[in-house]
Amino acid sequence: MNSDFFKNVYEVVKLIPPGKVSSYGAIAKYLGTNKSARVVGWAMNNSHHDPSIPAHRVVNRNGLLTGKHHFPDEKTMEDLLKKEGILVRNNRIENFTNVFWDPIKELDI
C-alpha cells in the first residue's frame, strides 16, 4: 500500500468522535479494501508522530487495545480512552458495541 492509503486512513480516524472507537477492519472496509485491516494497523503504528490523529480510538474487532505497544508508554492508549469516558478492563473496551463507531454507517459514502 502506498502513502495515499495511509493518508486516507488518517482522514477517517480523525473523524472518530471522542468517546467512540473504531476497528482496523471497519476502516479498511470503509476505504474499499476489506482485507486490509493489517495495513490500517501499520498506518496507525506510523501515526504517532502526528498528535492530530487519534490513534488511541482504533482497536481490533474484539475491542482489544492491540496498538498499545506503539504508544510512548503501554498505559497511554488506555489512559487516553478513559479520559474520553471509555471503560477499559484487561486491555479490552467494555460495552464495545455501545461505543463502536462504524464509518460506513456514520459517514455518507
How would you describe this structure to a colleague?
The chain is mainly α. It has one domain (3-106): Winged helix-like DNA-binding domain superfamily/Winged helix DNA-binding domain (Arc Repressor Mutant, subunit A, Orthogonal Bundle), CATH 1.10.10.10. The chain has helices at 3-13, 24-30, 37-45, 76-83, 96-99, 103-106; strands at residues 22-23, 58-59, 88-89, 92-93. The strands form 2 sheets. A two-stranded parallel ribbon has the order 1-2. A two-stranded antiparallel sheet has the order 3-4. A hairpin with a 2-residue loop joins β3 (88-89) and β4 (92-93). α1 (3-13) packs across α3 (37-45) and α2 packs across α3. The radius of gyration is 13 Å and the shape is globular. The model has no long low-confidence stretch (mean pLDDT 92).
Task: Please sum up the structure shown.
This protein is mostly helical and 109 residues long. Helices cover 39% and strands 7% of the residues. It has six helices and four strands, in the order αβααβαββαα.
CATH class: Mainly Alpha
* Number of contiguous helices: 6
**For the record, what is the CATH homologous superfamily label?**
Winged helix-like DNA-binding domain superfamily/Winged helix DNA-binding domain
Helicity level: 25-40%
How many domains, in number, for the residues?
1
Instruction: Determine the mean pLDDT.
Output: 92
If strands are numbered along the chain, what order do they take across the biggest sheet? 1-2
* Overall form: globular
Beta strands, count: 4
Instruction: Determine the strand fraction and express it as a percent band.
Output: 5-15%
**Architecture in CATH?**
Orthogonal Bundle
CATH T-level fold name: Arc Repressor Mutant, subunit A
Which residues form runs of ≥5 with pLDDT under 50? none
Overall SS class: mainly alpha
Outline the biggest β-sheet.
2 strands, parallel
**Could you give the distance between the termini?**
22 Å
The helix/strand order is HEHHEHEEHH
What gyration radius follows from the Cα positions, in whole Å? 13 Å
